[in-house]
């Protein structure tokens, strides 16, 4: 099997939300994004004022579903450049009275929260890659222990910022899927991502490009054979996977077509429906 190019990354995430005004207040004031472009029903958000990281589209009649009831988004993850910036983001969340979960995963430290429509968000900072460890099967050793909240706030000191740092990116996306074996077949055998965490005991599978601890997390925590998100519900519409050049885009598109999936192609992108999460993936360069 040919692996997807090592320089592959997650680009941006597109969500359906119920109120654009409410979501913009949250994502700009609390999270720290800035508006790049806005229409009556849609907004593109950025950290550096250039690159889109999040697209919000308003549907006032969208249904907000109970947690873990359908496939689709578990969370999208905003990767901050260092621990101090995570501490600054934590202070901002606390100041806004946001309910926060947290987990020290050994490879990273993460904060968990939800937007006004219940969409899951992770804000995290990676530990140096040189400290990441793999077990005998090649899976990254990841834990879920309590984050040192006091230590995070201490490293932030008195520094406060209203905005995310310019080098913030979408580090990964984590999805509820209907079947892990089918997810493995699609994401590894067809798309070419490498397995970096086969956590059968957790009912989760992590895949990535270039040895990252995970670009895509897949789980069956909504239940095996969970139904797909209805089209009239809030949540994930699609996410983008950024490939380094046209040759790689053509190679991945060819693999997807040969596997029997229908795709929508443009000159420098293609879109395919993920059969296990129900979301669409847009591959771009």
Automatic annotation (TrEMBL):
Q: Which UniProt keywords apply?
A: Aromatic hydrocarbons catabolism, Dioxygenase, Iron, Metal-binding, Oxidoreductase
InterPro entries of this UniProt entry? Glyas_Bleomycin-R_OHBP_Dase (IPR029068), Glyas_Fos-R_dOase_dom (IPR004360), VOC_core (IPR037523), Xdiol_ring_cleave_dOase_1/2 (IPR000486)
Tell me where in this chain the VOC domain is found: 9-126, 169-285
Q: Which Gene3D superfamilies match?
A: 2,3-Dihydroxybiphenyl 1,2-Dioxygenase, domain 1
Q: Which domain of life is it from?
A: Bacteria
Q: Which cofactor does it need?
A: Fe(2+)
One annotated GO molecular function: dioxygenase activity
Similarity field:
Belongs to the extradiol ring-cleavage dioxygenase family.
Q: What is this protein identified as? A: Catechol-2,3-dioxygenase subunit
């Amino acid at each position: 099997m040919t692996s997807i190019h090592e320089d592959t990354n997650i680009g941006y995430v597109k969500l359906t939300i119920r109120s654009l005004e409410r979501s913009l207040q949250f994502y700009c004031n609390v999270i720290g994004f800035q508006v790049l472009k806005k229409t009556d029903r849609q907004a593109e958000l950025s950290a550096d004022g250039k690159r889109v990281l999040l697209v919000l589209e308003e549907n006032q009649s969208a249904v907000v579903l109970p947690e873990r009831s359908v496939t689709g988004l578990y969370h999208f993850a905003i990767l901050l450049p260092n621990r101090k910036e995570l501490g600054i983001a934590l202070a901002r969340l606390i100041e806004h009275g946001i309910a926060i979960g947290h987990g020290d995963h050994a490879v990273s430290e993460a904060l968990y929260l939800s937007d006004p429509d219940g969409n899951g968000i992770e804000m995290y900072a990676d530990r140096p890659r040189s400290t990441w460890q793999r077990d005998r099967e090649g899976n990254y050793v990841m834990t879920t222990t309590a984050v040192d909240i006091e230590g995070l706030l201490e490293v932030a000191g008195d520094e406060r910022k209203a905005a995310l740092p310019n080098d913030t990116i979408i580090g990964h996306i984590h999805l509820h899927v209907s079947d892990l074996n089918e997810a493995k077949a699609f994401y590894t055998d067809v798309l070419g991502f490498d397995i970096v965490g086969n956590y059968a005991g957790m009912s989760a599978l992590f895949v990535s490009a270039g040895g990252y601890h995970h670009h895509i997390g897949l789980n069956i925590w909504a239940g095996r054979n969970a139904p797909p998100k209805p089209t009239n519900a809030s949540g994930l519409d699609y996410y983008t996977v950024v490939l380094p050049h046209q040759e790689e885009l053509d190679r991945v598109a060819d693999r997807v077509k040969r596997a029997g999936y229908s795709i929508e192609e443009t000159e420098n992108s293609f879109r395919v429906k993920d059969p296990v999460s129900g979301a669409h993936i847009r591959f771009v360069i």
